[in-house]
Design the sequence.
């Protein structure tokens, strides 16, 4: 048993290990850093290529090729990549439609764009979409596959992204490769820029393309890439185009750091340490770190430190994202999951400050780590790319406050949900249940209180904002309504407790059940109901999984309750 | 889990719910019977019942909204009187629970304040229900609007002969409805019954054989990807000419004019469309400029001033850039039109026939529209046409593919190759005269198809005479009734706003390089004649104009080619808001106070109430 802590260290080392990175800078590093314009935003090519790779292949690293290299390969060798099966086809009926052309569940962009029967049906689906008719699931998927192929084609033929800014009109779309890649490309550029600089850019690009095509030596390639980057820089300079290089660098740093991946690893590491400790000690408080000695002390300190490190890198990532986007990033599902999981860690630290018990960061580490893993693992559903806001969400103080408050309440309830599990497990498994659950219940209750205050005031703030911008305080919009339902759910639990109908165990079960209301308000309204004024947050996908996980969780809780009740027949009420 | 069953009928208050102290406080004032009723309303069982009921009702409401649309959820739940009753029950419960603790002690403060806050919010929502205005103003650019369109359906009847109008309120319904409801008895020129209401209706036209009317035929197009039936009605503005993908189907009385590549028209021709006839003027390749032509049979002469192969505006002047761009990218002709008391200069663009009128240039005073047609060389698919021609007793079809024309006699149900793609056509039905009948079918409430609009059916009755009329929302319908003509409109109620709003300008700003809007803005002038107010303001998303309690915010817009921009404002006034703000503030303070003052019980088992 004494070996266990060492094992934990081993597992921790495994989790934290990162693949060795190439020390020498390659051509692709230079290309990754170059600014391009896509989707109404200027970003490093790497960000674009990540979005592109994900959109076309549904994967972050298709065939293990890093996105920048992959996308440049598409540009340089479209004839090789167009027939490559890259686009995933998951739907059975569509798989059958492509039949033999389907390879390992994927079809090539070329197949998609030249499959007459498919195109014909897709055109009809697009027509239906334009007429705003309700689309069948198959039609949605059909259009999605078609769009993926089209997106690939646009990149491969150089229509996307924009590479060269208009010198006089910052609102204009940037010129794509197609515009200056050809022999006459220099002439077009010469209309806006000094001819010799323009000629340099198109010449350097030709050379780079040539080397990429024949897969030249890496030094040659490196040189060509640097030349291309430099000539573009010169071109911009010649007409006084100034880009915000700091933000571009920040975005690169953000992309490379992958802060949320680090954060979940650190949270889970901390949870491992603290769980290990818990197996030996029933009472684990903050003072434990200073009082005890040896391995246990080390484990407690390591658990706390890794939790704090996770919290810090989590915050740093969030902060970077704020700076890059120029707004608080809580405008889509991915961003709200990031923010909520950070809120869980924040509240756990506050409660830890008051109660000094390592149980709290342990629970928070599990909840926040779990949430971040989900956010990072389903990139197609939870879109991590930074995209422009719809007009209604742009720069409004009350809106920001309202959204941040509401989502922070989700964080408090998520912590309560985690602590609820803790209480239930302590009832079922703990050797000294009264002691353990008594304390945990107190934390749970506090977390619920924080949540209730935040949700109540956040909902009211939403009303203030709605009145300010829509002229009405309350309109029974589904998002509003579900916020109230979630609040009522927790009020039900609290009143049940006041009445004495719910004891500690009952409240724990209640906190898990009431969290379903939060899930509906947070995820369900956007992804399941998809109705109402909050339509900017709508997305699709994942609903069966979310319900399966929620259902499995409730089942687990019900089993725990059943087993507890059987053991505690003597206790009439809980 | 032995949660007690929550039952509203359970008026027997368990000892748990009735602390001894409180009974003393109220016993002195209330007889036992009323005390019992009061205790029921103050009970936690009722609270839990109401909370659970609200959760279920509201959840159901959101699912109804998702499945059947916002309107349905409002009619069935949120705006219904029984829902108001549930909220009132909540209010009574909340108030009674607070009164039940009389006389209040310091420890009650958080709890009492929270409940007071909820009561104030509920009072505010009652005010809202009674007084709220939530409508729309759609204003075209440079237009002024003084009425708010309210979401209250009405039937408007106007008689020019009688010089008066009638307005009747209609009832909204959650789902398509058919039945009979009396709308007006004696007030209208005829008695009115509503026989159908479709929140969203799809309108299809059925062509039927008739005694008189235009000829009609049904043509079937068949191919490996196409399976399409299409009705064509002779010279009908809509069904006389139907565009299907790259081809046109026509039913008319004129044969296709053959276009020969004419050396005399090597540079295309000018077309002068007068009201009664169309003149054509060929432009040969060896045209010396300037050159005069006279238009035959008209008093007009024209002088071609310039021929531009690629017109472009440079330094405020129209210049030929064909040398620079190396091609005919924008051919245009500059000409003078001379006639009695008339001398006009026109620039006609071949590729932008609407260009002059779009840019504010006046059409010719000679009443002609001038077009510059380029020579048709191999302009292949664009000219695909299947034309049916009825000339006296002859009934022909003509297929045009590029410059080639193939003709033949129409025989019913005979398949003929079209020559484009792999299509075949056949005429399946032919009526020498026909009429169109509109058929209304209910559609899903959630349909976003702009063609699906609300419709009602009315039954007009007087002196044993009956007439049934379908009315589409916002579409005027003429009804002839015993010699007089009436205009019927099914629309929305409009109420004077008390001020005038003029739209001066509307702008959409896009994210750089995309067609994704970043913001919408409207410059408006608000005028209130009775108060002497003139105010210029810019309304944008999240920046409404507030005037006398009205919030006027940017909710949408409509940009249609060839039409002025229309900005749509939502105009809302909610007099319940001050009460709601106050209540919300009180409630949040109360919750804070409650959680702050209430110490968590440290006893091992929490048995009793925690708000003692």
Sequence:
């Amino acid at each position: 048993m004494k070996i266990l802590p060492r094992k934990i260290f081993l597992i921790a080392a495994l989790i934290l290990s990162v693949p060795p990175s190439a020390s020498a800078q390659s051509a692709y590093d230079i290309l990754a850093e170059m600014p391009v314009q896509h989707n109404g935003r200027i970003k490093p090519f790497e960000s674009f290529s990540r979005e592109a790779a994900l959109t076309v292949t549904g994967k972050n690293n298709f065939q293990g090729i890093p996105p920048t290299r992959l996308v440049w390969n598409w540009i340089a060798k479209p004839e090789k990549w167009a027939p490559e099966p890259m686009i995933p086809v998951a739907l059975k009926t569509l798989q059958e439609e492509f039949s033999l052309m389907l390879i390992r569940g994927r079809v090539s962009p070329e197949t998609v764009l030249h499959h007459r029967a498919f195109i014909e049906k897709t055109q009809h689906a697009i027509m239906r979409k334009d007429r705003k008719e309700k689309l069948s699931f198959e039609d949605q998927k059909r259009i999605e596959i078609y769009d993926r192929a089209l997106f690939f084609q646009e990149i491969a033929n150089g229509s996307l992204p924009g590479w060269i800014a208009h010198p006089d009109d910052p609102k204009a779309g940037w010129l794509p490769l197609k515009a200056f890649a050809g022999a006459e490309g220099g002439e077009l550029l010469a209309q806006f820029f000094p001819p010799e600089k323009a000629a340099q850019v198109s010449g350097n690009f030709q050379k780079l393309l040539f080397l990429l095509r024949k897969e030249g030596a890496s030094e040659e390639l490196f040189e060509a890439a640097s030349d291309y980057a430099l000539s573009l820089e010169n071109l911009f300079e010649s007409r006084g185009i100034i880009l915000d290089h700091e933000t571009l660098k920040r975005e690169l740093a953000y992309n490379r750091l992958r802060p949320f991946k680090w954060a979940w690893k650190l949270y889970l590491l901390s949870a491992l340490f603290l769980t290990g400790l818990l197996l030996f000690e029933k009472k684990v408080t903050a003072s434990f770190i200073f009082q005890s000695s040896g391995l246990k002390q080390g484990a407690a300190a390591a658990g706390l430190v890794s939790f704090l490190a996770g919290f810090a890198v989590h915050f740093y990532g969030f902060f970077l994202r704020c700076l890059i986007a120029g707004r608080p990033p809580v405008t889509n599902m991915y961003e709200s999951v990031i923010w909520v999981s950070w809120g869980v860690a924040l509240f756990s630290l506050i409660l830890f400050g008051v109660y000094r018990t390592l149980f709290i960061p342990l629970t928070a580490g599990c909840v926040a780590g779990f949430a971040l893993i989900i956010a990072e693992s389903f990139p197609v559903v939870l879109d991590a790319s930074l995209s422009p806001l719809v007009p209604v969400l742009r720069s409004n103080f009350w809106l920001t406050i309202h959204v941040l408050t509401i989502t922070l309440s989700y964080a408090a309830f998520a912590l309560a949900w985690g602590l609820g599990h803790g209480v239930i497990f302590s009832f079922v498994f703990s050797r000294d249940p009264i002691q353990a659950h008594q304390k945990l219940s107190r934390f749970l209750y506090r977390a619920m209180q924080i949540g209730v205050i935040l949700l109540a005031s956040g909902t009211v703030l939403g009303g203030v904002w709605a009145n300010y911008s829509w002229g009405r305080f309350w309109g029974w919009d589904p998002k509003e309504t579900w916020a109230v339902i979630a609040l009522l759910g927790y009020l039900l639990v609290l009143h049940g407790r006041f009445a004495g109908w719910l004891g500690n165990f009952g409240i724990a079960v209640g906190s898990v059940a009431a969290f379903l209301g939060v899930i509906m308000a947070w995820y369900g309204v956007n992804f399941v109901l998809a109705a109402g004024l909050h339509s900017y947050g709508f997305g699709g996908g994942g609903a069966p999984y979310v319900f399966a996980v929620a259902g499995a969780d409730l089942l687990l809780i019900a089993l725990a309750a059943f087993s507890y009740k059987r053991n505690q027949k003597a206790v009439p009420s809980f | 889990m032995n949660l007690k069953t929550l039952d509203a009928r359970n008026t027997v208050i368990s000892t748990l719910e009735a602390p001894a102290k409180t009974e003393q406080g109220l016993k002195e004032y209330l007889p036992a019977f009323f005390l019992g009723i009061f205790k029921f309303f103050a009970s936690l069982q009722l609270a839990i019942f109401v909370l659970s009921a609200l959760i279920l009702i509201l959840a159901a409401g959101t699912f109804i909204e998702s499945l059947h649309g916002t309107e349905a959820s409002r009619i069935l739940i949120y705006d219904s009187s029984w829902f108001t009753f549930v909220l009132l029950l909540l209010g009574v419960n909340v108030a009674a629970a607070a009164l039940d603790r009389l006389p209040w002690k310091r420890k009650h403060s958080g709890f009492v304040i929270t409940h007071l806050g909820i009561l104030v919010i509920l009072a505010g929502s009652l005010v809202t229900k009674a007084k709220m205005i939530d409508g729309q103003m759609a204003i075209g650019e440079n237009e002024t609007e003084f009425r708010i369109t309210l979401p209250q359906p009405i039937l408007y009847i106007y008689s020019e002969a009688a010089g008066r109008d009638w307005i009747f309120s209609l009832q909204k319904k959650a789902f398509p409805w058919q039945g009979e409801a009396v709308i007006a008895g004696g007030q209208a020129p005829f008695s009115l019954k509503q026989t159908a209401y479709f929140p969203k209706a799809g309108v299809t036209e059925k062509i039927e054989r008739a005694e008189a009317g235009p000829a009609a035929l049904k043509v079937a197009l068949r191919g490996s990807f196409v399976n399409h039936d299409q009705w064509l009605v002779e010279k009908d503005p809509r069904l006389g000419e139907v565009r299907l993908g790259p081809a046109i189907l026509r039913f008319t009385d004129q044969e296709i004019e053959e276009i020969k590549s004419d050396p005399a028209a090597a540079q295309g021709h000018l077309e002068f469309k007068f009201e009664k006839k169309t003149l054509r003027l060929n432009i040969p390749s060896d045209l010396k400029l300037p050159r005069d032509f006279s238009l035959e049979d008209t008093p007009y002469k024209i002088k071609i001033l310039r021929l531009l192969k690629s017109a472009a505006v440079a330094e405020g002047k129209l210049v030929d850039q064909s040398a620079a761009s190396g091609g005919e990218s924008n051919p245009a002709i500059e000409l003078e039109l001379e006639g009695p008391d008339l001398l006009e200069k026109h620039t006609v663009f071949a590729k932008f026939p609407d260009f002059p009128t779009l840019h504010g240039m006046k059409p010719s005073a000679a009443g002609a529209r001038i077009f510059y047609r380029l020579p048709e060389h191999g302009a292949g698919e664009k000219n695909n046409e299947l034309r049916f021609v009825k000339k006296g007793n002859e009934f022909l079809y003509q297929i045009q593919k590029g410059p080639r024309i193939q003709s033949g006699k129409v025989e019913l149900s005979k398949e003929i190759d079209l020559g484009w793609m792999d299509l075949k056509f056949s005429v399946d039905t032919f009526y020498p005269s026909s009429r169109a009948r509109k058929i209304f079918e209910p559609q899903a409430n959630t349909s976003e198809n702009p063609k699906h609009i609300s419709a009602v059916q009315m039954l007009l009755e007087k002196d044993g005479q009956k007439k049934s009329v379908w009315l589409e929302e916002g579409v005027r319908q003429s009804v002839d009734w015993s010699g007089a003509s009436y205009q019927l409109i099914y629309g929305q109620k409009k109420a004077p706003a008390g001020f005038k709003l003029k739209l001066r300008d509307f702008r959409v700003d896009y994210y750089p390089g995309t067609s994704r809007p970043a913001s919408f803005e409207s410059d408006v002038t608000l005028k209130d004649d009775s108060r002497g107010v003139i105010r210029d303001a810019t309304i944008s998303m999240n920046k409404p104009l507030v005037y006398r309690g009205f919030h006027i915010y940017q909710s949408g817009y409509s940009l249609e080619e060839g039409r002025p921009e229309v900005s749509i404002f939502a105009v809302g006034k909610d007099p319940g808001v001050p009460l709601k703000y106050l209540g919300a503030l009180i409630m949040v303070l109360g919750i804070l106070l409650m959680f702050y003052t209430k110490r968590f019980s440290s006893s091992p088992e929490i048995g009793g109430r925690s708000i003692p």
